[in-house]
């Protein structure tokens, strides 16, 4: 997964310095970077579905899913698609970043965790294979029943086919120029308990997945998005107040500001990175009031629970929110 973000480093984030120790072409327009501490020391643990903030030497920050071996304690691997509309992130990685260069790394964080299940159905579109690859390895290691449906523009544009070919019929490779659109209904089958469905890819694929899983039990489908959600207009246009429970401070959020900006103005630092509701860095616990969720991370049930919000984009339905800050 890659997410387009403003040209900012993760605000206040704990950013480690890593060195590029490998750069390999994996498919047409897709390469992997291997990153290690300059000392060669151990990196933070991570779990399938995790991503990191990559702070590039040109000042841009991008989020990429970790797709390497989670049991290699000294190396992170990320997959990077050269975006046709790149504004300096993926183009820089592809054309300028070299082995030996130093980058900043924030995280890892996991907004897309693999939860226990009897059966996993994975559906990847293009570079959306990157968060699913460690999940496939984990499911295989656990002896779980799993299958992967992997679509792409062309076979040449699809990364990691060699590794996936070792899994035989569990993996269905479906290049669009050979087989057309993915047969989601045929792959998923009918709703049944004990199944978890994980999908990552472009927005049309994820919309099709939501439609295909509409009759499945709640919580079955988990998705990871490339881009910010289109939340439409905020639910309210009037200002609202945010009370910070730990200090008793009250901050007014006007219609032209985000909660994050309002907090920043009064010197309250909340870690942030993408500032578009896609990376999960600014997750904040809600103690009272109903958030107007505008992120691309929470599912319907998590939104209904209303006990956390992403303050870079989400607002308030009520006059007052109380946050655990
Ligand atoms: S900073 Fe990325 S979700 Fe808020």
What does the secondary structure layout of this molecule look like, with pairings?
Layout: E1 2-3, E2 15-27, E3 30-36, E4 50-55, E5 61-65, E6 76-81, H1 90-95, E7 102-110, E8 119-125, H2 129-142, E9 145-152, H3 161-165, E10 171-175, H4 176-179, H5 184-188, E11 195-200, H6 203-212, E12 221-224, E13 240-244, E14 249-253, H7 259-265, E15 283-288, E16 291-292, H8 300-305, E17 308-310, E18 315-316, E19 320-323
Parallel strand pairs: 8-9, 8-11, 9-10, 11-12, 13-19
Antiparallel strand pairs: 1-5, 2-3, 2-7, 3-6, 4-5, 4-7, 13-14, 15-17, 15-19, 16-18
The structure holds FE2/S2 (inorganic) cluster.
What does the model show?
The chain is built from eight helices and 19 strands. With 325 residues, the chain is an alpha/beta fold. The chain folds into three domains: 2-110, Translation factors (Elongation Factor Tu (Ef-tu), domain 3, Beta Barrel); 119-224, 3-Layer(aba) Sandwich (Rossmann fold); 240-323, Beta-grasp domain (Ubiquitin-like (UB roll), Roll). Strands 1-5-4-7-2-3-6 form a seven-stranded antiparallel beta sheet. It has a five-stranded parallel beta sheet with strand order 10-9-8-11-12, sandwiched between helices. It binds FE2/S2 (inorganic) cluster. FE2/S2 (inorganic) cluster binds next to loops. FE2/S2 (inorganic) cluster binds at residues 272-275, 277-282, 295, 310, 312.
């Amino acid at each position: 997964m890659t997410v387009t973000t403003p040209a900012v480093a993760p605000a206040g984030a704990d950013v480690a310095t890593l060195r590029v120790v490998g750069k390999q072409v994996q498919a047409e327009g897709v390469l992997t970077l291997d990153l290690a501490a300059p000392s060669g020391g151990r990196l933070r643990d991570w779990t399938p579905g995790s991503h990191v903030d990559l702070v590039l030497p040109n000042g841009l920050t991008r989020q990429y899913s970790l797709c390497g071996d989670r049991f290699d304690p000294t190396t992170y691997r990320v997959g990077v698609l050269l975006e046709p509309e790149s504004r300096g992130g993926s183009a820089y990685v592809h054309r300028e970043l070299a082995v030996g260069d130093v980058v900043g790394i924030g995280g890892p964080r996991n907004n897309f965790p693999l939860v226990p299940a009897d059966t996993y159905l994975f559906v990847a579109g293009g570079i959306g294979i990157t968060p699913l690859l460690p999940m496939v390895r984990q499911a295989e290691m656990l002896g779980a029943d799993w299958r992967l449906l992997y679509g792409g523009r062309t076979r040449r544009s699809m990364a990691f086919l060699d590794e996936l070919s070792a899994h035989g019929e569990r993996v269905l490779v479906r290049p669009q120029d050979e087989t057309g659109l993915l047969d989601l209904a045929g792959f998923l089958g009918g709703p049944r308990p004990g199944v978890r469905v994980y999908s990552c890819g472009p927005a049309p694929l994820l919309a099709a997945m939501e439609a295909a899983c509409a009759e499945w039990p709640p919580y079955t489908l988990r998705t990871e998005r490339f881009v910010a959600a289109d939340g439409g207009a905020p639910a309210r246009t009037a200002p609202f107040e945010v009370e910070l429970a730990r200090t008793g401070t009250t901050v007014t959020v006007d219609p032209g500001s985000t909660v994050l900006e309002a907090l920043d103005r009064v010197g309250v630092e909340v870690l942030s990175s993408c500032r578009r509701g896609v990376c999960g860095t600014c997750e904040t616990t809600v103690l009272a009031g109903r958030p107007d969720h505008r992120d691309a991370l929470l599912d319907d049930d998590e939104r209904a629970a209303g006990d956390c919000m992403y303050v870079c984009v989400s607002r308030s339905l009520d006059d007052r929110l109380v946050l655990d800050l």
